[in-house]
């Protein structure tokens, strides 16, 4: 690899990424899900009604009343949204949010689930005695459950509130070495963490059983846990990025036009993690490639079938194709959506005209007639342009 100092600092450009909204993050996951068209439509309506806390306070039936969407389809969409990152979104209140998170993160933890379902008010008051009277759960079990529950986020939407734009610094580098791609975690911008040896020696020299030693030992345990957690997250990022490279090798060799369809589930199954974990680890994470810096989310996209039945084409690669066709069109005779559809179909991709129109709007490209008018206005305002 010739990835030297010059390239290593190439990413230090003043590129600012607009902060992603909660709705945008949920919609991205929705479009990668396995829901059918009706359920997908219901999901979009539900997400639009989720407030900044992450809660869906409006009744599901009322929300779908004027939409001609069966309640069953809406319920399926809501259940799917409940599994998205951040987990617990779409809940009606704090209690349901915590229950949803516990079901997904600790499905075998019956005690925590029972406390949240049946003794939530007493749990908030830390009324252990009342809980014990009404159940067979003792003090130690309640305290153990609370230690886990305190790690949950009562308002999942707040994880996306008040985010500020950041300079893009890639978390991962993908480089080619002797024809094979390697994933490198960018540690240059993360300080190395280790426990101070003098601090450890101080603990050893403090009298056993003393309050000072117990306090220092608890701080040491917390520090070691933090270091272990960071290493685990780093390892998870490495595994997920390695899987993405395996699925998207054509992209890394040939560029964005070779992007393939890829879902969260495909990567999750490959690395044996939950889909929400893959979503979380790829959120606001960037990779430096020979083609530029990309957010890890860029590599996930739904599929359009090819006429031959072979591997599909990613929605994003089709959007890139539409953009290129418009850029190369005759300004005097711009391509209609039908003509764009015909050209893409001629390349072996099954696509509908309404899909072309949808992607064109996503790309903020005007319809053919308005592009032509804009060209004429530009020519009038700049006579030399017509020469």
Describe the overall structure.
By secondary structure, the protein is α+β, with helices and mostly antiparallel strands. It folds into three domains: 22-159, no CATH class; 172-298, no CATH class; 303-381, Arc Repressor Mutant, subunit A, CATH 1.10.10. Helix content is 52%, strand content 7%. It has helices at residues 5-8, 22-30, 37-49, 60-64, 71-82, 94-105, 110-118, 120-124, 128-134, 139-149, 197-205, 211-247, 249-254, 264-271, 275-282, 315-328, 337-346, 353-362, 368-381, and strands at residues 16-17, 166-167, 172-177, 180-185, 286-289, 292-295, 303-304, 313-314. It has a four-stranded mixed beta sheet. The protein has a two-stranded antiparallel sheet with strand order 1-2. Helix 14 (264-271) packs across helix 15. It starts with a helix and ends in a 6-residue tail after the last helix. Mean pLDDT is 81; it is low at 1-18 and 307-311.
